[in-house]
Amino acid sequence: MAGMSVGGLVSGMDTNSIVAQLTALEQMKVTRENQKKESAQKTLDKFKELQTRLGNLAAKASAIETQNKFNVFKSTSSYEDYVSVSGKEGATAGQYEIEVKQLATTQKVYSKKIDEINTPVIAAVGADPVDFFDTNGSATISLSKTEAALKKDPTKKTVDIKISKNDTLKDIVNKINAAEGAGVRASIMAMANGDNRLVLTAVETGTNGFQISDNSAAIGKGSILEALGILSSGTDQVVASKNVLLTTDGEIADESTKFDKLNTVMNKNNFATGDKIGIYLPTDNGSGTGGWVTFDLYNGTTAKTIGDVLGEINTALTASGANFTATLNEHGEIILKGDLNGDRNFDSSSLKDVKIQMGTFKSDNSGFLEVKKDMGGLTSRSIFANPLNEGKNAIYTIDGMTVNSQSNTDDKTINGTIFTLKKVSKEGMEPIKVSLELDKDAIVGNITAFIDEFNALLSFINENAKTTVKEDTDKISGKKTTTREVGPFSGDSGISSLRDNLKRMMTSVIEEISGTKNNGYQTTYSSASRLGITTQKDGTLGVDRDKLTQAINADFEGIRRLFTSNNFSDTVGCKVGNFNKNSSAGVYEVTVDVDGSAIVMLNGQKMNLMEYNGNEVLENRVITLENGLAFEVPTSFGAGGPETAKITFVRGIASQISNFVDKAKDTVSGYYKTSEKNYQNRIDSIQKRVEELQVRVDNYNARITKQFAALERNMGNLQSQTANMMSALSGVSYRR
Predict the structure, then answer these.
(1) pTM score > 0.85 for this model?
(2) Contact 376/618 with Cβ under 8 angstroms?
(3) What is the separation, in whole angstroms, between the first and last Cα of the chain?
(4) CB 603 within 8 A of CB 147
(5) Which one of 328, 542, 557, 667 is at 20 to 30 Å from 274 when CA atoms are compared?
(6) What angle do CA 239, 241, 244 make, to 5 degrees?
(7) pLDDT tens digits for 65-107?
(8) Can you tell me the distance from the alpha carbon of 455 to that of 441, in angstroms, rounded to the nearest whole number?
(9) What is the pLDDT of residues 648-705, one digit of tens each?
(10) For residues 590 and 613, what is the distance between their CA atoms, to the nearest angstrom?
(11) Cα distance between residue 561 and residue 215, in whole Å
């Protein structure tokens, strides 16, 4: 039978057993290495479980790491399908009566007819590519950014996409939709008989809509967007006021509305005889000097209409040689349209400094003594050839006060409170009652869940880091034996350091709010132990829910700052804008001089600036450090000479832990990746050793099997020779 071997037939020895036992002795070396591999694999598996548990802790920390998330409110609405309310940072409990008059809508425009969507779009509209593209066959379309994208990076106000002369309509749509942060989305509307239209829709609602432009006019003879029928042809520009004019009745004002009927403050009109509307011109426009140009709101004691004053403004514009006019549009915005770039006050570089305000003017004509209505500056608008839907603002009332909002989610009118408008109130419908109340039980629950997850992680680490001695008794002999069992994390300094760091972050004092740095804010609750969160004998944390609830009732703001990432300042208007995981907590001294230069100090050390935008961006200057921390300061800050603000950036307990886990997970040389790689390298090394040893064992088995087989053959030959010799000897006769 193939492969069958019977040993010891000649020698009488059980050679198969001998070979097996000798091989088993060598195989023990492989077994020991496999046991090492199993132990290393167990450690790796436990480490991966550790990552999962750390992720769970980070998730619980994330739920309370920012002020927005920490605040948990109970909200009610008498008509939830019409209006709902919620709270974020800075919110306070309140009850409101809401009436929705108009919902905000999105702006939507379309192109001219495009016959083919899979052929180069310029050819599809019958244009010559030479007129629109540079020598490389490309051009740039610039799209305005969303508010969120602009806040994230205020240094650049547009998103630019490159298009080529071979791009089809589908290609352009895909590029627009792939542009991160763009304030517009694109689609193709297929009409009958091959009539295709490019449709552009604003991402955000409201009259601001979106702006779009291209650089092809500077390259060739025309504009790609004009050729497509997106933008109107011509040289006119349009700007609109940021704020709108509403009447005391809550309606949108028109040019027939008199100034004594405008809503200036809290649904009331506080204009008086002698008040003026003023336009601030930042520079010499070519025919006069910069400064305030004013117009009376009253003829004696009789209020003028908006149309009357706009007529006077247009007369003055014509006299000054301006090639543009002022009107009031259907949304209550003041509009300037014409050759704005021809006037240095209204071109792109100066427009941000133009102001339109109303109120009581100073007798020396240097500015307003009291501003009663501010139009909020001017913003550029694109002139579209084929508007489909006009973007509208939401208009609603809060306790009878008329509010105008660019969005149906209004988080600007009442600090920290978000009103979400869903439907227009029906005629005769009673006001919708909404309320917001801090849910302290839910906050206690979130903090407790965070502590529970921390305890579960700590117990897991401790359980897998300990070494135990197991005692067994032999059932037959009764002899006792001891076995030492080493936990997967035993002796791992990295995991010990991880545990110690987490315990330190959970139990240490947050100095920035303890008052020790004398930075203008202080709370009694600057550590977890003062809330009833204390360390127990096993190292885990216990939570006294009653004491925690009492602390929240006593100083909610202090508790919130203890857990979250937050900031405060000793100077109004100066604050932290953005931060990332590399941003360090501390009290920063931000100094801006009259020349616009900026210096930031931390603990006496000068911080390196990554970027500084000294122009008006989102109504603030933005100073960004190399560690990712960005400060916003008013444009007036430092205008009269060197001015210093102390701005404190706080990383609370939950913020620290969430940030710690995030850095460990994502950093290229982070703890997760380094440790997992080390464990896997160890397993791979042991596996390589196992394979090498197994080859040796197999070779050893083959060698001794061959040797014993040779022994049997030799012994068989010897026995045969001996038998032959004895046979020969037996045939010999001896004579005496």
Answers:
(1) no
(2) no
(3) 56
(4) no
(5) 328
(6) 140
(7) 988 889 889 999 999 999 999 988 778 889 999 999 999 999 9
(8) 21
(9) 999 999 999 999 988 876 543 456 667 777 878 888 888 888 888 888 888 888 888 8
(10) 14
(11) 48
